[in-house]
Structure formats: structure tokens, C-alpha cells
């Protein structure tokens, strides 16, 4: 049933934009790793939605992430209502997966974006660190080439309860910060914002958060996005 819904959504979105000229000829396949040793999870998933697709005047923000992003996107979209339309693509895929960028390209190509918030990490804890760094860097290069006019914000992964898992999260976040410095990109530090020392009352299951915490995170990232919208949009608030 889920596959049918996603397929239908893809077909509808493709039809909406079928008459548009592509932004450029950047091909996601050119930015993939030549080899990935990562083994896929037993169940891989993808979710996607975009609000107000017919509205070409209002700036659009694209949120890329995993189930943490999926949980905070609703309060983020509500906070941005009237100033930015929102698209989100969330997935279990590690950035090293050969299908990651081609799948992202399908949804990224549906329209132009003023701001892109990019996260990938929690499903990459067992990924070879060197491969993760190389693939993450290639993904950033792809986003910059595909959307040269967009403000790209790299989002760190949030804390988790298990110490070994959290150590992997910290390691991957350092990689994100390293690449952000190399590429002169802003970082939204979701890890620090959620504050692991205070997460015991926020976690639902040691990874995902309760509604209050998701709302707080969504509103905070929306605040960051709002700062990078076109000046005329900010004045209209």
C-alpha cells in the first residue's frame, strides 16, 4: 500500500512539472562513490511531500534527512507558513548508497529551492567512516552544482541514548562540521540544540523524540531557514 501511495505521488508530481525546463544538466550519477561496502538495512524506506506545488512565487525550503526530520517537518512547515513552502525527502538510505543521490535528484528536480537543509547520519552508524566522509562530501558538491542559487545548510544528527551509537553520531557530526568548513557552509547544530544531557525526558525510544521536543526543533530550524529567505519575503512577515 505504501509503495502504491509513493508511486502515485511521484507520478502526480512529475506531471505537475513535466513542462518545466530543467535547472541544469548536473547528473547525480556523476557524484556517487565508485564503490560502497555498506550493506543495506533489512527494510529501507523513503517518504516525500511538498506543499503548494503550484505556487511559484513563494520561496521553497527543502529538508533532507531521516525519521528525525520526518518528525519535525510539520512544526517547521507551520512556522514557515506564509513565508516559505516546504518540501521534504526523508530516507533510511546512507549517503554512500548508490541509489541515494539518484533518488534525491528525482525530488530535487521538481522545482527551485531558496534554502536546502541537508542531513544524513543516523542510518550510517555502521558505514565505513572514510566512505561516509567521501560520499557526504560528494553529496554536498552535488547539491552546490545542482542548486547553485540555494543557501545550503548542513544539519548535524541528533543525540541517541546508546553510548556506542552516540559515539558514532559524534564522529559523523565532526565529519559534517569539517566538510562545512571546507565548503564554507553554515551548520545547524541539531545535536547541541537537543542537548543529550537533557534528552532522557525528550526521547520516546532512545532515538526519536516526543512531540514537544520535535516542535521545539522544528521551530528552531525554521527560524534558521527564515534568516536566509529572500529579503522581500522577510519584510512581508
Summarize the structure in words.
This protein is an alpha/beta fold. It has a 6-stranded mixed beta sheet with strand order 1-3-2-4-5-6, with helices on both faces. Strand 2, helix 2 and strand 3 form a beta-alpha-beta unit. The N terminus is likely disordered.
Secondary-structure map:
Layout: H1 2-17, E1 46-50, E2 60-65, H2 67-80, E3 85-91, H3 100-108, E4 115-118, H4 129-146, E5 151-155, H5 163-183, E6 186-188, H6 190-194, H7 211-226, H8 231-235
Helix pairs in contact: 2-7, 4-5
Keyword list:
disordered N terminus; 6 strands; alpha/beta; 237 residues; single chain; Rossmann fold; 6-stranded mixed beta sheet; globular; 8 helices
CATH superfamily: SGNH hydrolase
> Residue ranges: pLDDT <50 for 5 or more in a row?
1-23
Give the second-level CATH assignment, the architecture: 3-Layer(aba) Sandwich
Query: So what's the CATH class?
Result: Alpha Beta
Shape: globular
Percent in strands:
5-15%
Number of DSSP strand runs: 6
Instruction: Specify Rg, calculated over alpha carbons.
Output: 17 Å
Strand order of the largest sheet: 1-3-2-4-5-6
Question: How many domain modules?
Answer: 1
Amino acid at each position: 500500500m505504501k509503495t502504491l501511495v509513493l508511486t502515485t505521488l511521484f507520478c502526480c508530481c512529475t506531471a505537475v512539472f513535466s513542462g518545466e525546463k530543467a535547472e541544469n544538466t548536473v547528473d547525480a550519477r556523476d557524484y556517487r562513490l565508485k564503490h560502497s561496502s555498506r550493506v543495506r538495512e533489512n527494510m529501507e524506506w523513503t517518504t516525500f511531500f511538498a506543499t503548494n506545488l503550484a505556487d511559484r512565487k513563494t520561496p521553497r525550503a527543502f529538508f533532507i534527512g531521516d525519521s528525525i526530520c520526518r518528525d519535525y517537518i510539520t512544526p517547521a512547515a507551520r512556522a514557515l507558513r506564509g513565508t516559505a513552502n516546504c518540501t521534504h525527502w526523508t530516507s533510511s538510505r546512507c549517503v554512500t548508497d548508490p541509489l541515494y543521490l539518484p533518488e534525491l535528484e528525482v525530488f530535487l528536480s521538481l522545482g527551485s529551492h531558496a534554502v536546502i537543509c541537508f542531513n544524513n547520519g543516523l542510518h550510517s552508524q555502521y558505514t565505513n567512516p572514510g566512505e561516509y566522509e567521501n560520499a557526504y562530501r560528494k553529496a554536498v558538491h552535488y547539491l552546490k552544482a545542482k542548486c547553485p542559487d540555494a543557501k545550503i545548510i548542513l544539519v548535524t544528527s541528533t543525540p541517541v541514548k546508546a553510548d556506542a551509537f552516540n559515539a558514532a553520531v559524534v564522529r559523523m557530526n565532526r565529519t559534517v562540521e569539517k566538510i562545512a568548513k571546507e565548503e564554507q557552509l553554515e551548520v545547524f547544530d541539531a545535536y547541541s540544540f537537543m542537548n543529550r544531557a537533557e534528552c532522557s525526558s525528550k526521547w520516546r525510544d532512545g532515538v526519536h523524540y516526543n512531540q514537544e521536543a520535535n516542535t521545539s526543533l522544528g521551530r528552531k530550524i525554521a527560524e534558521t531557514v527564515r534568516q536566509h529567505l529572500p529579503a522581500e519575503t522577510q519584510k512581508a512577515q
